[in-house]
Write a structure and sequence with these properties.
- It is a single chain.
- By secondary structure, the chain is an alpha/beta fold.
- It folds into 3 domains: 201 residues, 3-Layer(aba) Sandwich (Molybdenum Cofactor Biosythetic Enzyme, Chain A); 93 residues, Molybdopterin biosynthesis moeA protein, domain 3; 73 residues, MoeA, C-terminal, domain IV (Beta-clip, Beta Barrel).
- Helix content is 19%, strand content 29%.
- The protein has 8 helices and 26 strands.
- α2 packs across α7, α4 runs parallel beside α7 and α5 crosses α6.
- The longest helix is centred in the C-terminal third of the chain and has 19 residues.
- It is elongated.
- The structure holds adenosine monophosphate and magnesium ion.
- Magnesium ion binds next to loops.
């Protein structure tokens, strides 16, 4: 585990009061470490988990040479460029079992009718699709004619081991288990997969003006939406969540919440209380209980963020729920990674997507590259100052010419959740980028897959 000072020393330049979005990502990738414990999970429970070991194919897939088409299998050496080929049909090879002729192997001048997926009879390497042959009959003997220059030897045959070779990695450590990958594991006959254990993430909202659902509205107070957006985004990542509610601006309550979270979780996500000039105790408590930096990021929305580690033992508190909670046995003696997000609801979601999500994926053991940004044509002019990264809520659609286009969804204020709710992605206007004109291509981060 590195301290924040050690990480700062590794970086070319580090000014906590003026960080760019790429610098934040770089810093976080040095701060977090992957979980170590593994879980052997049945396939039905493995979706969204991360593989902790390569999956080695126990056999060749497919296990035999087989036909890719319904047609007739024959020895392709008989094909001639300038003459049709006539073959006598000796029987039918069905999918699922090896063809056994009564008169030994198929010889020159003979073929076998074959179904897709059926094992290629011994000595045969080529399949002519049934729609390409002319059928003929002589007595009770059926024969086919294949036109000249129609096929080459080996056509329409799938080779043994063509999908996967026995002993080779079919899936790799660090890969997220998607439906296709779980299907692939099933096709290898595997009942379980070795995965990294899920990440435990505690989250709470701070601020005396924040109401929990069910509380009566009062002047100047707002309902807590951040816990719900954070819950949703963590759910999509498959994290084990520990919802700690709204924590009042009271040193004892904040200390108890941070200590419990650090004892039981790998990561803590808070919202509110980290901006400059905050009067409340959140920042003071983060400082007291851990190694925490308070950043100003050149971004919009977002900007203030607290990052570091909260140590479980520093204050000597014991966990509130020890023994009764499923989050005990924190294996991380270094405490929990803290992501102290701003309070504004859209800033919470954007900082989560831009920074917290990649960091959590790294902690989950994922080694995959982040999803690529897409390019879409802006349908409007957007004012943008170089020197900060701006995330605009947008609706991406297909233009009449087939290209992607994007328009913003209403007010971009950092507290306006409605325009986030109406969006299907974020325009990412990069640090050095200036104004956007109508028709300019911009990068977009689609919510699909992330939200
Ligand atoms: P802060 O970062 O604490 O200064 O909060 C910035 C703004 O976000 C204020 O208007 C807060 O009322 C609002 N806010 C903070 N936390 C939440 C929350 N959990 N849900 C909704 N709005 C919030
Ligand atoms: Mg506040």
């Amino acid at each position: 585990m590195k301290t924040l000072d050690q990480i700062a020393a590794e970086l070319q330049s580090y000014d906590p009061q003026a960080l760019s979005a790429p610098q934040v990502l770089d810093f976080l990738s040095r701060l977090v470490t992957p979980v170590r414990e593994v879980l052997e999970l049945p396939l039905f429970e493995a979706l969204g988990r991360v593989l902790a070991a390569d999956v080695i194919s126990p056999f060749d897939v497919p296990p035999h040479d087989n036909s890719a088409m319904d047609g007739y299998a024959f020895d392709g050496r008989q094909l001639q460029a300038d003459a049709p080929l006539v073959l006598q049909v000796m029987g039918t090879a069905l999918a699922g079992k090896a063809w056994q002729g009564n008169n030994g192997p198929v010889k020159a001048g003979q073929c076998v009718k074959i179904m897709t997926g059926a094992i290629m009879p011994q000595g045969l390497d080529t399949v002519v699709p049934q729609e390409f042959v002319t059928l003929g009959q002589a007595g009770d003997r059926e024969h086919i004619t294949i036109a000249a220059a129609l096929l080459r030897a080996g056509d329409n045959r799938r080779l043994r081991g063509e999908d996967l070779m026995q002993g080779k990695a079919a899936l790799r450590k660090g890969e997220l288990l998607t439906p296709a990958r779980i299907g692939l594991a099933a096709s290898l006959g595997l009942k379980t997969l070795t995965t990294w254990r899920p990440l435990r993430v505690a989250y709470f909202s701070t601020g005396d003006e924040i109401l929990s659902l069910g509380e009566a509205p009062r002047e100047g107070a707002v309902y807590d939406s951040n816990r719900y957006t954070v819950f949703g985004m963590l759910s999509r990542l498959g994290c084990q969540m520990m919802d700690m509610g709204v924590v009042r601006d009271d040193p004892a309550l904040l200390e108890a919440a941070f200590t419990e979270a650090a004892t039981q979780a790998d990561a803590i996500i808070t919202s509110g209380g980290v901006s400059v000039g905050e009067a409340d105790y959140t920042k003071a408590m983060m400082k007291k209980l851990g190694d925490v930096a308070f950043w100003r990021i050149a971004m919009r929305p977002g900007r203030p963020m607290a990052v570091g580690r909260i140590l479980a033992t520093k204050s000597g508190h014991s966990p509130i729920n020890s023994g009764t909670s499923s989050y005990t046995n924190n294996s991380n003696p270094d405490g929990a990674v803290l992501f102290g997000l701003p309070g504004n609801p859209v800033a919470v979601m954007v900082t989560f997507l831009a920074f917290v999500r990649p960091a959590l994926l790294q902690m989950m053991g994922s080694t995959e590259a982040p999803p690529p940004l897409l390019k879409a044509r802006s349908t409007e002019t957007i004012r943008k100052k170089p020197g900060r990264t701006e995330y605009q809520r947008g609706w991406v659609s297909t233009a009449p010419d087939g290209a992607l286009q994007v328009k913003t969804t209403g007010s971009q204020g950092s507290g306006v959740l409605r325009s986030m709710a109406e969006a299907n992605g974020l325009m990412v206007l990069h640090h050095g980028q200036g104004n956007v004109a109508v028709g300019d291509e911009v990068d977009v981060l689609m919510f699909a897959g992330a939200l």
